[in-house]
Amino acid sequence: MFRIGEFSKLSKMTVKTLRYYDEVGLLAPEKVDLARYRYYTTDQLVKLHYIQSLRQAGLSIEEIGNILSGKDAEEILIRRKLQLETDIAEKTDQLSRIDFILQGKEEDYFMNYQATIKEIPECIVYSKKMTIPNYDAYFTEIPAIGAECAAANPDLKCTVPGYCFVIYLDGEYREKDINVEYCEAVDRFGNEVGDIKFKKMPAITAVSVMHKGPYSDLGKAYAFVFKWIEENNYIVTGSPRESYIDGIWNKESIDEWLTELQVPVQKK
């Protein structure tokens, strides 16, 4: 038998760790004498080597204890393997985002934007599909839609915080005769009137980018978000949404208008 100091040298494991393994029930000494000296055997060296290999594989003390107590080692190892693969994917994603931010220093206008992945929950909306002559038409069309819906649904309430957005239905950028769907999130289904319909919008995973300033500069935000999607190994899975947070209705200066771009995505 070996006293704990000798066993420590033999196993290349600190005395502190050996005592800890004893306390948590992973490796008790073969014998403890009246003077409280711990003694170990060469058979325990093999067991300790196994414990070390599991620790170096990233298993927790609890997981190792479960294996040593007879629970399914393969199941525990597979579960740990899946967790490590998830961790690696997350770290790889973080590295990709850092590289993208660093590269953006070469393009000054990109420095005004940051991208985040956001889970947008399911919601009920009233919506209207329409063709607008140009983007300035929003200032008359959107208030008119709200007024028409409110007249038919006087008790209907918008969600708090508010969530109104436009979905572009054309497969390309257009400056006139633009096909869009305007949506406003509300607390329940209501009475449909004219071309205004109620429906449930599904939850989406989206890249979110905030744009502050006039709508005429939104092209820069779109350029940024699609470059971000490409370089961070995502693919677009649906039509982009423009969510209007601040605008002409509550801000005096056009420079204070705040629009959020939400582009549905998934990892490649």
**Class inferred from helices and paired strands:** alpha+beta
**Topology order in helix (H) and strand (E) letters:** EHHEEHHHEEHEEEEHEEE
Any idea what the radius of gyration is?
30 Å
Poorly predicted tracts of residues: none
What's the β-strand tally?
12
Give the proportion of residues in helices: 25-40%
Total of helices = 7
State the major sheet.
9 strands, antiparallel
Indicate the mean pLDDT: 88
How much beta, percentage-wise?
Answer: 25-35%
Distance between the termini: 57 Å
Shape: elongated
Walkthrough of the structure:
- With 268 residues, the chain is α+β, with helices and mostly antiparallel strands.
- The protein contains seven helices and twelve strands.
- The strands form two sheets. Strands 4, 5, 6, 7, 8, 9, 10, 11 and 12 form a nine-stranded antiparallel β-sheet that branches. Strands 1-3-2 form a three-stranded antiparallel β-sheet.
- The protein is elongated.
- The two termini are 57 Å apart.
List keywords for this structure.
26% strand, 37% helix, 3-stranded antiparallel beta sheet, 9-stranded antiparallel beta sheet, alpha+beta, 268 residues, 7 helices
Topology at a glance:
Blueprint: E1 2-3, H1 4-11, H2 15-23, E2 31-32, E3 38-40, H3 42-56, H4 61-68, H5 73-103, E4 115-120, E5 123-132, H6 138-152, E6 164-168, E7 178-186, E8 197-201, E9 204-212, H7 218-231, E10 234-236, E11 241-246, E12 258-267
Antiparallel strand pairs: 1-3, 2-3, 4-9, 5-7, 5-8, 6-7, 6-11, 9-12, 10-12, 11-12
